[in-house]
Structures are given as structure tokens and as C-alpha cells.
Amino acid sequence: MSKLKYFVIAGLLRVVGWLPLGSAQRIGRWIGLLLWKVPTKAREVTDINLRICLPELSGQERERMAQASLVQTGQTMLEVPLMWEWPVQKCLDLVKETEGLELIDEAMAGGKGLILLAPHLGNWELAGLFFSSRYKMAALYSPPNMPEFEDYMIKVRGRLGSELVRGDRRGLARLAAILREGGVAGILPDQSPRGKGNAFAPFFGMEVKTMTLVSKLIQRTEANVLITYAERLPDAQGFRIVVKRTDDGLGDKDAVAATTAMNRSIERCVLDIPEQYQWEYKRLRHRPPGQPNPYRPDRIC
């Protein structure tokens, strides 16, 4: 059954991968509008996140933002097969503008490694391809629930030599080694981590569990850190790669101080293009003990 499911999904990815960008984004917008118009879990989570994270929005503004977010997420869903199935150069040709690339040269001067934080903002798959086309790069990933899908994912994301490492002890050791060699490590910093070894830090004003991996890597390797995203331009014009400095303190030995600085850095990027953030993700679900789960108010963390 699992293999059959894999072949169906892989087939759908290949079919969508034949589409031009404009058609994929148009279908994605329709899917997003459908997710907004009917009472879906995606809309419910989006509404909760926006109410908590952007309380300054009026009810009407929040409705518009929720609709825009789901439309953008629909486009992201349909763009992923393009990034995985298109020839690499065709994907890279979608990058029409860049901002802040000089920060990378500065950060890597003298042979230092670089941690690139890439939150779930815009098209993070394209951002990964773009940077792996320029630098010796490794990216941290969590194995998918479908084992058959893992080999496919590693193959398509590693087409330019990017090394995918699992988020286990061996993978983290490999990531540290690459940074010590002056390479680049790509990390999605806004996931809701499980297990121990993390910290609770404010994200848009709410204390949530946040990964301490980035601060530990900085302490072990003395790597620099920047944050990036690929902004979707209107009317299927392509994308703009943006690189920014992070807040001071990501390498602080105090875990709360370090994760607070990282979350602030993510917030600043999100506020640049809030409608392109993946508000449909349950980022706020892991709270300090005794606090309610905002998605399940009847359940205490």
C-alpha cells in the first residue's frame, strides 16, 4: 500500500512538473481560494496564527490576510513539483532579482562557514537550489513519513551537489564538519521541534519551543549566520532572492537569548511579506508546561 501511494504521488509530481510557472500558480491560487472558502483545517490554523501573531490587524484585515496567505500557500504547493522536476537551469532562470548577496561574501571571508536560515517564507525550495548552485552546501532535513519518498527527495534536492543530512546525531556532526571546512549549511529555523535540547522563546509574542541547533553550531564551528528567502513576484514574473543580517545574539550560550534572537530575525523577514509566510503550519503548538495549546484550547501542554 505504501509503495502504491508513493507511485501515485510521484506520478502527480511529474505531471504537475510539466506545467509552466503561470499555469501552476493559477491552479495553486484556485486551491488556495478553495481552502479559504470552505471550513478547512488550513483556514482554521491560519486564523488562529494570525490572531495571535498579528493582533494589530482588524477583523477585516485578518480575513484579507488569511485569504492572501492561503492563496500564496496554494501557489507554493504547485511550485514544489516544478522545482523538483524542471531542469535546474530552468529553475534558476526564475530568479529575476537579488538583494544582499554581498553579505554572503563578507560572511565567508577568511574561510569561515555560513549558516543560512531559510524560514517557510516564499519559495524555500528555489532558495535552496539557488545557493547550492553557488556554494558547497549541506541542508538539514527530516525523513518523510513515507520511506520510499526519501530517496526521491534526496535526489531532486541534491542535483547540484547539495548534501542532505538527517537531523540526527550523525547528521549534525556532518553539518558541523562542513561548516568547519568553510561550507554553507541551510536550515529551516521555524519548525516546531520535538524532544529535549530545545528552548522556549517568544515568537510574535508567544512562548514556543524553538530549536537550539543553530546556536550550538555557531558555538562549535564559529560559523557566521544570515537569513534568506525567495520572494514570489506578481503575475508569474519569477522570484527575488533576499539575504539579510540576523539579530545579534544567535550564538549566545544562553539558550533562551539565542533562540529569542533567532525568532526575532525570522519575524523581521515575515513582516516584509507576511502573506507569503506559511501561516497554515502549527508553529505555536509546543508551549511551556501548563500552557494551553492554541489549536486545542482544551489540551494543556
Topology:
Layout: H1 2-16, H2 21-37, H3 41-53, H4 59-85, H5 88-92, E1 95-99, H6 101-107, E2 114-117, H7 124-132, E3 137-141, H8 147-157, E4 163-166, H9 169-180, E5 184-187, E6 199-203, E7 206-210, H10 213-221, E8 224-232, E9 239-245, H11 255-272, E10 292-293, E11 296-300
Parallel strand pairs: 1-9, 2-5, 2-8, 3-4, 3-5
Antiparallel strand pairs: 6-7, 8-9, 10-11
Helix pairs in contact: 2-4, 3-4
Give a quick precis of the structure.
The chain is of the alpha/beta class.
Ranges where pLDDT stays below 50 over 5 or more residues in a row are none
Helical percentage: 40-55%
- The protein's oligomeric status is single chain
- Overall structural class, as computed from helix and strand content, comes to alpha/beta
Roughly how many Å is the radius of gyration? 19 Å
Mean pLDDT, to the nearest integer, reads 91
The helix/strand series, from N terminus to C terminus, equals: HHHHHEHEHEHEHEEEHEEHEE
Distance between termini?
35 Å
Number of E-state strands:
11
Q: Give the neighbour order of strands across the main sheet.
A: 1-9-8-2-5-3-4
Report the biggest beta sheet as strand number plus sense, adding barrel if it closes: 7 strands, mixed
Inertia-based shape: globular
Number of helices: 11
User: In what range is the share of β-strand residues?
Assistant: 15-25%
